[in-house]
Amino acid sequence: MIQFYFIIHLNGCKWILSPIDDPYTYLKTIYDNFDFSTVPYKKDYYECVPKEAMPLPKEWKVYFSLHDRKGGERAGEELPLNTTFSWAGYEWLIPSAYICSKGLVLDVFAEADSDKVHTFLFKWMFAEEDESKLTAEQRQQIENENPLNYDFRAKVSVNSTLLHEKQGQGNVWVQEYEMYQSESMRDILDHYGLSLDKCWIWHRMSFPWATNTKPKIKSLALKLEQRPVSIIGERFSVTNVGQQVKFVHPVTNAEHTLTVTDYEQDTMSFDRHFSDGYEHPTHLTKMAYTLEPELTNMQFSVSDTKQSDAPKKAKISAPNSDFASAIAIIGGADGPTSVIVGVPKTEKKLHAACSALTFEPQKKVEWKMTFREKTVEDFEIQIKE
C-alpha cells in the first residue's frame, strides 16, 4: 500500500503529516464523545424550526419502585459517589445513589473483560443453533463460563443500620454486538459518561429505609456476597448397596465418602394415564446414600449424566383425564434430579437421587456430582463516612 506524507510550512516550522492506522475508530471515538448541543445553529434555522419541535435532552429520573411504579411517586435525589473497587475478577464502579422517600437506590457497574466476553460469545453463540440439543452439563458450563452472568446479593449499611435489597434490575452492554446494545442501556452509560467501547454489567437495587422517615445519610457502606455457583464434580457408577465412592470437594479440598444404602431399579406407576396423547418413559434407577463428612442438599447433589428419553406419540390416544404419580419427582426438562422414596432408617442423614426416565431399564447408570459453593470471599466497602 502506498502512503502519502504531506509537508506543511507554518510560521517558519516544518510539519510532517502521516496517515493514522485506523481512521474509522479515531473518528468514531470523536463522534461518540462529542456534545452536539454545543453546536450553534444559524439564526434562520431557529426561524424555520419551532422551538417546541426541537429535540429535547432525555430527562434522567430514578425512582425507588423499579417495577410497577404508581403515579405520584417522586424521583430520588442523586447523590454522586464515584466509588471504584476490585472484586471477584471485575472492576466495579458505584457512580451514584438516589435518596428516595421510601428508601435508597444504588447503581452498580461491573466492567467485564472484553476478551473473555468475546471469546465466550464466539464459543457458545454458534456452537449449537438448536438450544434444545444442549445437555444439562453444557447448559451448566455455559452458565459458569458466562462473564456477563455474575450473581450476587447486596446489602447496604446506612448510618450503621443494615438495609436489605427489595427490588433489582439489570442489563449488559457489549461492544461490537448490537444484540447487547439496547437504547436504555446506552442512555444509562451516557448519563454516567462511561465508555461504549467496553463491556458492562449494570445492576440497580432498591433498599427500603429501616425507619419511617428518610434519614440524613452520614455513613454508607456496601456489602456484596456471591451467590453459590454450581460446580460439576466427578462421575461414578455403582451397582450394589454398601459400595463407597471417595471424592475430594473442589472448593474446600476436604475428603468425603459416599456410601450407598439403597439401590434398585423401579418404574413410575400411574393411577391414570396421561391425557396428552404421548407415551412417556417410566423406567428409572433410584439410589439412597449417606455422606461422611456431611454435606447438605443445597451443597451437594447426585444426578444422572443421561437425559430422560423424549416422549413418543402414543399408538392410541389416551382418554382425557388427570393422573397421579405414585412417586414424587423433583426435576425439570432434563429429567428428574431427585426422588422422594422410602429408604431404610439409619443414624446418618440419608440423601436420595434417581436416574433419568427411560423406556427401557438402564443396565448401568453413570452418576455425576454437583457442588454448590461460593468461590470468592464476601466483600465490604465504605462508600461514605
Give a structural overview.
The protein is mostly beta strands. The protein has three domains: 6-51, no CATH class; 77-226; 230-373, no CATH class. The protein is 12% helix and 39% strand. It is built from five helices and 22 strands. It has a five-stranded antiparallel beta sheet. A hairpin with a 2-residue loop joins β1 and β2. The longest helix is centred in the first third of the chain and has 12 residues, at 114-125. It is globular and about 85 Å long. 16% of the residues are buried. The model is unreliable at 317-344 (pLDDT under 50).
Question: Summed up, what is this model?
Answer:
By secondary structure, this protein is mostly beta strands.
Count structural domains.
Answer: 3
Q: Count of DSSP E strands?
A: 22
Question: Helical element count?
Answer: 5
* SS-based class: mainly beta
Gyration radius, to the nearest Å?
A: 30 Å
Measured distance between first and last alpha carbons: 59 Å
- Fraction of residues in H or I helices: 10-25%
Strand content: 35-45%
Query: Looking at the structure, what is the overall shape?
Result: globular
